[in-house]
Amino acid sequence: MSKGLPETRTDAAMSELVPEPRPKPAVPMKPVSINSNLLGYIGIDTIIEQMRKKTMKTGFDFNIMVVGQSGLGKSTLVNTLFKSQVSRKASSWNREEKIPKTVEIKAIGHVIEEGGVKMKLTVIDTPGFGDQINNENCWEPIEKYINEQYEKFLKEEVNIARKKRIPDTRVHCCLYFISPTGHSLRPLDLEFMKHLSKVVNIVPVIAKADTMTLEEKSEFKQRVRKELEVNGIEFYPQKEFDEDLEDKTENDKIRQESMPFAVVGSDKEYQVNGKRVLGRKTPWGIIEVENLNHCEFALLRDFVIRTHLQDLKEVTHNIHYETYRAKRLNDNGGLPPGEGLLGTVLPPVPATPCPTAE
Prior knowledge:
The chain is of the alpha/beta class. The protein has helices at 4-17, 47-58, 74-81, 140-157, 187-196, 214-230, 245-258, 297-307, 309-330, and strands spanning 60-67, 106-114, 117-125, 173-178, 202-206, 261-262, 269-272, 275-282, 285-288.
């Protein structure tokens, strides 16, 4: 017998096992700046003006939720934020009206126009939250409502004949009101933010900050930040979503210094040094809502409306909604067997006959 035969077979087997080298993926070339070589004006920069005109025509949606115990001035603060009566005050209730036995969800829509730009604002209130003797799982109706809005949007998206502009009822921002105890967060605060921070942008605020001294306010803010960090609770703006160094630098300052915003709300005006200002009247003077020496309302307003409103919407769509959407599609839409995502009953798949043994 030839001794070379087994070696030949082994070599052939080995050649079959070794996979062929895969071609390396093509790496896109970095764009080369050719500004210096332009022979004249093109007009690329007008895209910003085009976008502005389109936004002014169509307007945009912004949905803000307020959560916290009654009596913390949630409605007053939202009215102050948007300088209009966009949220019903609890003080308008009759004295005979009982505190809701369960958490209710109440959404009120408004159209606000400023400088030719229309915003369809929806304020979602949650009366009854944290007001019971037993507040166990009282965040569940709120989480359910948030997910229901994602579900509505998803169903519109997967429609064959979907609308040109899908109505957006998704919650873009949740202001969570912390009681100004000066001590620490309640277990309910931690449980709510732990559950809801995964599905919505939470912005924590310390309500009625004028009940604390400057030293108490500073210490309480630090304590709240520490408790949130120890419990692994991420509030907006989340570190992992910073897009570049500029975003990180700006957001780090907000996370480490401003959060949680210690605020005072008021929709009443008073005369101070010849000017009409929003404020709260006390025996020792006027607390000016928009004066940074008195409270951090102006920081909260600038943050939510003037610098991060678009980002709140984008994080809601690209992160929270996409997480929900991916899970639903992975679960086959979570619909009963035989139903498609569109809610139409699909024809049963014909059974494949098993091969018969001969």
